[in-house]
Design a protein that fits this description.
Blueprint lengths: L1 H12 L9 H17 L15 E2 L11 E6 L5 E3 L3 E2 L3 H18 L4 E6 L5 H13 L5 E3 L2 E2 L3
Parallel strand pairs: 1-7, 2-5, 5-6
Antiparallel strand pairs: 2-3, 3-4
Helix pairs in contact: 3-4
Length: 150
């Protein structure tokens, strides 16, 4: 009996053109698009305009921006955490980098220090920041510089 109904339905639809309902497919694509937009996070590195980094002929733009801890060193030797708060002591630098490292470890991202120092800064200040980051467990350092053509 079911086969008779099926045969009748097939005979009735022989003259009609078959069409696929794409509305559910479009809904699914938009839902996936919204899901990936919400679940991803943008990586925003704020550039402190008070820092004038040195130029380098062999500088390269880093391809992976995830896991960066930005520390800016101004020309007067003051150290700032991504331009928002001043880090006056070595302990403050270590605490700032350590907190960022723990946050990145929980997300499964390796942590790197992005050191943006002014070209007029004494190298002892840069050494102090790198050593403080090392005490916090971060040994990978990216030195910020401008790229100049060879």
């Amino acid at each position: 009996m079911a086969s008779a109904k099926l045969q009748a339905a097939v005979r009735a639809a022989e003259g009609e053109e078959l069409a696929m309902d794409m509305s559910s497919m479009i809904d699914l694509v938009f839902l996936l698009l919204i899901f990936f937009m919400v679940s991803s996070h943008l990586i925003i590195v704020e550039i402190d305009k008070r820092v004038n980094p040195p130029t380098a002929t062999n500088a390269q733009v880093a391809k992976n921006a995830s896991g960066r801890v930005v520390v800016n060193v101004l020309s007067d030797g003051s150290i700032w955490a991504q331009g928002k708060e001043e880090l006056p002591t070595v302990e403050a630098i270590t605490d700032y980098v350590d907190q960022a490292r723990l946050k990145n470890e929980n997300a499964g991202i390796p942590t790197r220090l992005n050191l943006r120092a002014d070209e007029d800064v004494d190298t002892r200040v840069i050494k102090k920041v790198v050593q403080a980051a090392g005490e916090a467990g971060v040994s990978d350092v990216i030195f910020g510089s401008y790229v100049v053509e060879k």
